[in-house]
Amino acid sequence: MKKLALTTALALSMGLSAVANAHPINAGYATNSTDTVWKTGYGECWQHGYWTEEDKTVECGAEPAMAAPAPAPAPAPAPKMMMKMVDAQESHIIYFDFDSSKVNDVSPIVNYVGSLAKLNSIELKGYTDSIGTNAYNDALSKRRVEAVDAALVEAGIETDKVVSYSFGEANPVKVCTDTGASRKACLRENRRVEVTISGQKKVMVQQ
């Protein structure tokens, strides 16, 4: 009987070994023909005598393998930029006191001209209010554009870039029915020189 038992045990051992070799995923464990690991009555996996820690599977107590992190997306290529000249235009208005051609401040105009890569022209259009004769107001509007022109030249603006026009009391932007000092104050917006600056600026644009 002992000999029979040893023979049986040996045959079983060889059979299990063959099964293990046929199913390397569960190497180190006894499995059946469908690669299912045999378990004891306590739910433990049946290990062979040549089992090692490297043979441990998730089913038999190993920690699940962490999924490899997804590769970071490749950064988008930086857009190629280039310098380009573009047309630019800006308008300003200089206001005057009643019956005056005194220019108070042209620095906003000078600063804008300084921001340009190229100055094409500065157009001046002079106006007055409706108080006084047409002839007087025509002359006054001319004095006003001449005063602005002189102030710009003094600030370093090229004289050949300035074009001047005077229109007297034409093209009012304000109509007033007041009288006396109140009328003069109301008509202030008509006492003006309109300044239009044309040129080009350098800007960075995407290719």
Describe this structure in words.
The protein is an alpha+beta fold and 207 residues long. The protein has 2 domains: 2-60, no CATH class; 81-206, 60s Ribosomal Protein L30, Chain: A (2-Layer Sandwich). The protein is built from 4 helices and 4 strands, in the order H-E-H-E-H-E-H-E. It has helices spanning 2-22, 107-115, 134-154, 180-186, and strands spanning 81-95, 118-126, 162-166, 192-206. The protein has a 4-stranded mixed β-sheet with strand order 1-4-2-3. The protein is rod-shaped. It is found in: Cell outer membrane. Keywords: Cell outer membrane, Membrane, Signal. This is OmpA family protein. It comes from Amphritea atlantica.
Characteristic key phrases:
60s Ribosomal Protein L30, Chain: A; single chain; membrane; Bact_OuterMem_StrucFunc; rod-shaped; signal; OmpA family protein; 4 strands; four-stranded mixed sheet
Shape: rod-shaped
Question: How many angstroms does the end-to-end distance come to?
Answer: 93 Å
**Number of structural units classed as domains:** 2
**Average pLDDT number:** 84
Spans of at least 5 consecutive residues whose pLDDT stays below 50 are 1-23
Kindly report the CATH topology of the largest domain. 60s Ribosomal Protein L30, Chain: A
Query: CATH superfamily of the largest domain, please?
Result: OmpA-like domain
Strand content: 15-25%
Number of helices: 4
CATH architecture of the largest domain: 2-Layer Sandwich
Coarse structural class:
alpha+beta
CATH class descriptor name of the largest domain: Alpha Beta
Walk across the major sheet and give the strand order: 1-4-2-3
**What's the story with the biggest beta sheet?**
4 strands, mixed
Summarize the amount of helix as a percent range.
Answer: 25-40%
Count the strands? 4
Q: Determine Rg (CA atoms, Å).
A: 48 Å
Give me the strand/helix succession: HEHEHEHE
